[in-house]
């Protein structure tokens, strides 16, 4: 994986709170915030999604999790990941044009 691809993945990991910064600190964490913090837009939205999922599973009497809801969640996560990677590439492309 090239340096740019590694940077994209690192920034994505930082924004999604996926990196263990205590064990593996990275320079970019000084600039890139975890967008899934409790009071952040993504954190609030994700909590709402989880609560809606729980209510739906209760209504369906399916216990813990529903296969169709999991498919929806996985699909939305793949879409989000793809858009994030493309947005980084477009940002780099347009920044290099100046």
A few lines on this structure:
The chain is mainly alpha-helical and 98 residues long.
Q: Give the C-alpha Rg.
A: 17 Å
Mean pLDDT: 92
Q: What string gives the helices and strands in order?
A: HHH
Structural class: mainly alpha
Helical content, roughly?
55-70%
Beta-strand content estimate: under 5%
What are the main properties of this structure?
98 residues; mainly alpha; 3 helices; 0% strand
Write the layout of secondary structure elements.
Elements: H1 3-15, H2 41-60, H3 67-96
Care to describe what's here?
- With 98 residues, the chain is mainly alpha-helical.
- The chain is built from 3 helices and no strands.
- The chain has helices at residues 3-15, 41-60, 67-96.
- The longest helix is centred in the C-terminal third of the chain and has 30 residues, at 67-96.
- The protein is elongated, with a radius of gyration of 17 Å.
- The mean pLDDT is 92.
